[in-house]
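Archive transcription. Copying these from loose printouts into the bound notebook so they stop getting lost. Printout 1 of 2:
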Amino acid sequence: MNTEAVAVPAREEPASARAYRALERMIVTLELPPGSVATEGSLIARLGLGRTPVREAIQRLAWEGLLDVRPRAGLAVAPLHASDWVKVVDARRGAELVLARSAARFVTLEAARHFRDAALMMQKAVITGNVIAFLEADKSLDNAMAKAAENAFAARLAAPLQTHSRRFWFRYQADTGLAEAANGHLAVIKSVTEGDCDGAEEAMAQLMDLLRANALSAERG
């Protein structure tokens, strides 16, 4: 399975956003292993960015529960317990249904283009077996959904749970579930871009059911 990272243009992004995106990816893909400890200085060196943007990214990741800032002891990456995946999906479900239905209601031509771009990225990822490209597409889809739904409250609730879910999926399901996961996401995209509110909500519910089944399978070992 190809896990080679796909370069994403980021010149327009503020340094803090680039730092966050890079660290988030390192945590999601277990490049920073669960339970491991790093220092602010080591992360600054790895990212090649300044202290302030990296510190801002660390603070955001700590708020999201992905890093534990321990004064004078370093930065601990959140542990990964299979039994927690179900809890993440259950917490995420309600916000995702709201976002999907709202996105279908308010979708614009520009938003639809972003959804179709994410769909194309996912399809290419399945064809090439590129898990990292799929994760990038999934992140793009989440961003498109948050923007199209026009519900900042639901989007802010869902965002950290989406990141946790991606990390669990990468750890426990990436080797066998790429095509199945892509199909679930593509069904959501289709309904949203067609402006089908009921269909988008139902497709999202089915996707959450799939993720929950994956989580239960991981918990059973």
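Printout 2 of 2:
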Amino acid sequence: MKKITAVLSTTVAALAASAALASPASANAPASFEPWLQRSAAQCSGISASVLAAQIHAESDFRTNAVSRSGAMGPAQFMPGTWAIWRTDGDGNGTTDPYSIADSVMAQGRFMCHLFGQTAAGVSNGTMRGYALDLALAAYNAGLGAVQRAGGMPSGGEYSTQTQPYVAKIKALEPRYRYLNGGGGTSPLHQAGLDFGSLAGLPF
């Protein structure tokens, strides 16, 4: 009985935390980010401004000077090698800076469009299981190779403790940023739904 009660308490607490995270917040994305999130999302039809905003929230909480312990830089948390490939001069000032809102957000969208294209193709041809957008988010965190090797959402080790919760966190945060999409439209992330597979047993 004690074990059952403990499990129920943990489950209720996790659900409450998830509900609180998913509920609309009074604070919006910083105004300096909003036009760039919308421009970045316009680069392809597979992503939305609300998804990009939730992703930056999860990555850096919109801190332009963010630097991770592993060396990821700026609000979109690009690793140096990844930035070298996807860097973008978003504001046209002649430089590419991962700490610049314009450059980092436009590069984030460009990279996410690429990942979404790869995962959408994988789902379509049967080499990947799940939904293209949540797999693209997983690829942003863990690398496209990890998703390809798993044939879908990677699991085990840090994939279970970091990548899967990362995708789930973005899903929970996304509704509060839908005002960025214009016209009150639903984001692609919620149009298709998410297939989290083994995420169902995780405590969040």
